[in-house]
Design brief:
Shape: globular
Number of helices: 12
Strand order of the largest sheet: 5-4-6-7-1-8-13-12-11
Bound molecules: coenzyme A
CATH class of the domain at 227-377: Alpha Beta
Oligomer: single chain
CATH superfamily of the domain at 227-377: Thiolase/Chalcone synthase
Strand content: 15-25%
CATH architecture of the domain at 227-377: 3-Layer(aba) Sandwich
Largest sheet: 9 strands, mixed
Length: about 375
């Protein structure tokens, strides 16, 4: 029998994934970057010789893999990213009548999630597009996704950088707890290649493109095989160590409109040092509050930014080095996909878990922000 509690109890019914067809290996990326460095240094040889300009340094495959664990990244626009004279994605501007590229990949991820749940779009009440970089100010990308899928109800965009998906899951779960919705799609389309400075040696290897979707629903409505949401917890603390100053006020200072801070910039070392303890504490507190021991965590689906960070976070939580089975990695082939990373990890690594198994989805990043979602496979 279904109780009123079941109606208000949020679960994850399914997830969806859209992966771009093209991938760039570290070797391809470094070859292009180093060709750019050689070209730049040759063009400015006299100024470098005179000490008026500093020569650019080459990148290295070994450094990238050792520092980050990233071996490749999926991208929507490979040729232009690798073209030394362009070094950023190229998307032809679309007329307003055509779906925008961000909504398009979001729809692909969302359709996958709907199909896996056997859910008809007509039964979905709301769409949240939760991601790091929104293509435009308005109308909301979420409303465009809603329209493309034929969903009634409402949609809006939200941005909490790399933590957007977990913040979106809590928002959707709260709608369900409050009885304001029964079925909510949380869509995270991430075109990180568009905000990455592919000419910056410190960060050119970090990001990739992808779209994920999470269908959050009321327990009594959800299909068999869903995941109960035992609890969600969010945390933010202001930091300038990951920042992107792109915005509509850039036009008010045209002299600095195209400077490097209008793309992703970070103090990677500081981020590493400050975010690891913040996330370790968040997860430890969260599971303790729910009465779950670290040894009861069957799997951790962590944000996918840096393999070393994930190793340390898992160690802090579990008290031992996590195996690939306990804390799976997808950043080796997907790179950092911002808010989508922990959802990809979950999507690709949950089918072997059994009813009663408990796990945690946790994302973290700019803000700083961190979100954790504790889930248990339903009987
Ligand atoms: N190729 C070769 N060498 C490079 C390089 C590259 N592409 N980029 C930097 N280096 C050099 C630096 O110049 C530096 O040289 P030095 O020691 O002579 O000064 C050295 O490598 C170390 O650089 P550093 O930036 O301190 O590396 P790191 O070990 O901190 O790794 C990150 C860099 C970005 C991979 C790492 O800090 C990180 O992932 N941090 C967490 C970031 C994160 O999670 N961000 C969230 C984003 S949403």
């Amino acid at each position: 029998m279904t109780s009123a509690y079941d109606q208000a109890r949020p679960v994850i019914s399914s997830t969806g994934l859209f992966t771009p067809a093209d991938s760039i290996s570290n070797e391809e990326l470094v070859a292009s970057f180093n060709a750019y460095v050689a070209q730049h240094n040759a063009q400015h040889a006299a100024a470098i010789e005179a000490g008026e300009m500093v020569a650019l340094q080459p990148s290295s495959v070994e450094f990238i893999e050792k520092a980050s664990g990233i071996k490749a990244r999926k991208v929507l626009s490979k040729a232009s990213i690798l073209d030394v004279d362009v070094m950023c994605p190229r998307f032809e501007e679309r007329p307003n009548e055509q779906i925008s590229v961000l909504a398009e990949i979001g729809v692909a991820g969302a359709r996958d999630a709907l199909e896996r749940a056997g859910r008809d779009a007509k039964d979905v009440d709301a769409v949240l597009v939760a991601c790091s970089n929104l293509q435009r100010a308005y109308p909301a990308i979420a409303i465009e996704v809603q329209d493309a899928l034929g969903i009634e109800g409402f949609g809006f965009d939200m941005n909490v950088a790399c933590s957007s998906a977990t913040f979106g899951i809590q928002t959707a779960a709260d709608f369900i707890r409050a009885g304001n919705a029964r079925s909510v799609l949380v869509v995270s389309p991430e075109i990180c290649s568009g905000h990455l400075n592919w000419r910056d040696r410190d960060s050119h290897f970090i990001f990739g493109d992808v779209a994920t979707a999470v269908l959050v629903e009321a327990a009594d409505f959800a299909p068999a095989g869903h995941w109960d949401i035992l609890g969600t917890q969010l945390k933010t603390r202001f930091s300038n160590n990951i920042r992107n100053n792109f915005g509509f006020l850039n036009r008010t200072a045209p002299e600095t409109r195209d400077s490097a801070d209008k793309l992703f910039v970070q103090e990677g070392r500081k981020v590493f040092k400050e975010v690891v303890p913040m996330v370790g504490e968040l997860i430890t507190d969260h599971i303790a509050r729910l009465g779950i021991a670290p040894s009861d965590l069957r799997r951790m689906w962590l944000h996918q930014a840096n393999a070393g960070m994930n190793r340390l976070i898992a160690q802090r939580v579990l008290g031992h080095e996590a195996s690939e089975d306990e804390s799976p990695t997808v950043l080796d082939t997907y790179a950092n996909t911002s808010s989508a990373g922990s959802i990809i990890a979950f999507h690709l690594n949950n089918e072997d878990l059994k009813p009663g198994d408990t796990g945690i989805i946790c994302s973290f990043g700019a803000g700083y922000s961190a979100g954790s979602v504790v889930i248990r496979k339903a009987a």
